[in-house]
Automatic annotation (TrEMBL):
The keyword Flavoprotein applies. GO terms for biological process: response to reactive oxygen species. One of its GO terms (cellular component) is protein-containing complex. GO terms for molecular function: flavin adenine dinucleotide binding; NAD binding; NADH-dependent peroxiredoxin activity; oxidoreductase activity, acting on a sulfur group of donors, NAD(P) as acceptor. NAD(+) binds at residues 146-160. Keywords: Disulfide bond, FAD, Flavoprotein, NAD, NADP, Oxidoreductase, Redox-active center. Binds 1 FAD per subunit. Its EC number is 1.8.1.-. It comes from Trinickia violacea. Residues 2-293 form the FAD/NAD(P)-binding domain. FAD binds at residues 3-18, 267-277. Disulfide bonds join C134-C137. This is Alkyl hydroperoxide reductase subunit F. Homodimer. The lineage of its organism: Bacteria, Pseudomonadati, Pseudomonadota, Betaproteobacteria, Burkholderiales.
Length: 310
């Protein structure tokens, strides 16, 4: 059995692995794909102390550091069930898709999240070529340009307000007949001179010239009229889904499916910790996930030295 078993190897899981292994305890990491979401990122310009890097390079560096400390890396392994210890101090089990059960005195859950796609033609083709999901990450790439935000909930409206300060013009596209964001955000949005809001608008296609995005098509759901907007970027803001479906019923989740953690990364299950985008920690960013992983590992270590093995 491991002292610490980490499930997921993005920035959060990798940081947890490095911090745990450096305590000299038996550390394993079970992961579908080392690196996590950063593998799908073109350019990273906001990881502190690194002026610019790209996702695959950053992901490879995470894995190299985890390997350097002799962590047992179990790749292409998908966890399907968490089996809490029968009593505090007992072993926690993690059942893998291949049927095996890994056992550990403590477990850190860091399975991350995925952006919900709008699933229209052009979205996949132009990912990272104008189609973006994270305004904090990619907003500055569209400085002075025209972009759209798809989604009029809190994250869409926040993104539109944020982007309006950076880009030339923002077109917000909402499927429903009104924006669902908090009234204070909607009021702020409506006060901005360079934002156009379209409600009852169904995005039908993201168009491009073969290399990058050049427009967005939407249908007015009331009149049936089709519209085309010429623009350089499309931010899809229709939800971030935590990879926690497999934990339903064993670990407390928020109504958004995020693992509920306290300030030290404890979940409601003894010996089980959470870190990064799969948890209730606010602001889903690499630097935040990495710090959170370090914190969860230190909490797990604290748990191990205080909890006798039964
Ligand atoms: P993830 O990176 O999502 O890692 C989750 C890990 O868990 C992966 O290894 C995955 O394979 C594994 N996993 C999932 N389910 C299971 C399972 N059941 N069993 C085993 N393993 C599992 N942030 C920034 O700070 N700057 C940026 O420029 C930036 N750009 C981005 C661009 C894009 C296109 C995207 C998608 C995200 C971007 N982000 C950026 C956000 C950033 O990537 C995330 O906040 C960060 O990766 C979260 O780290 P994490 O470790 O919590 O989760």
């Amino acid at each position: 059995a491991f002292d610490v078993l980490i499930v997921g190897g993005g920035p959060a899981g990798s940081a947890a692995a490095v911090y745990a292994a450096r305590k000299g305890i038996d550390t394993g990491i079970a992961v579908e794909r080392m690196g996590g979401q950063v593998n799908d990122t073109l350019s990273i310009e906001n990881y502190i102390s690194v002026l610019e890097t790209d996702g695959p390079k950053f992901g490879a560096a995470l894995e190299a550091q985890v390997r350097h400390y002799g962590v047992d890396i179990m790749s292409q392994q998908r966890a399907v069930e968490l089996i809490p210890a029968a009593q505090p101090g007992g072993l926690v089990g993690v059942r893998m898709e291949n049927g095996g059960v890994l056992q550990s005195r403590s477990v850190i859950l860091s399975t991350g999240a995925r952006w919900r796609n709008v699933n229209v033609p052009g979205e996949q083709e132009y990912k990272n070529k104008g189609v973006a999901y994270c305004p904090h990450c990619d907003g500055p790439l569209f400085k002075g340009k025209h972009v759209a935000v798809i989604g009029g909930g809190n994250s869409g409206v926040e993104a539109a307000i944020d982007l309006a300060g950076v880009v030339a013009h923002v077109t917000l596209i909402e499927f429903a007949d009104q924006l669902k964001a908090d009234a204070v955000l909607v009021a702020k949005l409506n006060s901005l001179p360079n934002v156009t809001v379209n409600v009852n608008a169904q995005t039908t296609e993201i168009t491009g010239d073969g290399n990058k995005v050049d427009g967005l098509r939407f249908k007015d759901r009331v009149s049936g009229a089709e519209h085309t907007v010429a623009l350089e970027g499309v931010f899809v803001q229709i939800g971030l889904v935590p990879n926690t479906e497999w934990l339903k019923g064993t670990v407390e989740l928020s109504r958004f499916g995020e693992i509920v953690v306290d300030a030290k990364g404890h979940t409601n299950v003894p010996g089980v910790f959470g870190a990064g985008d799969c948890t209730t920690v606010p602001y889903k960013q690499i630097v935040i996930a990495a710090g959170d992983g370090a914190k969860a590992a230190l909490s797990a270590f604290d748990y191990l030295i205080r909890t006798p093995l039964v």
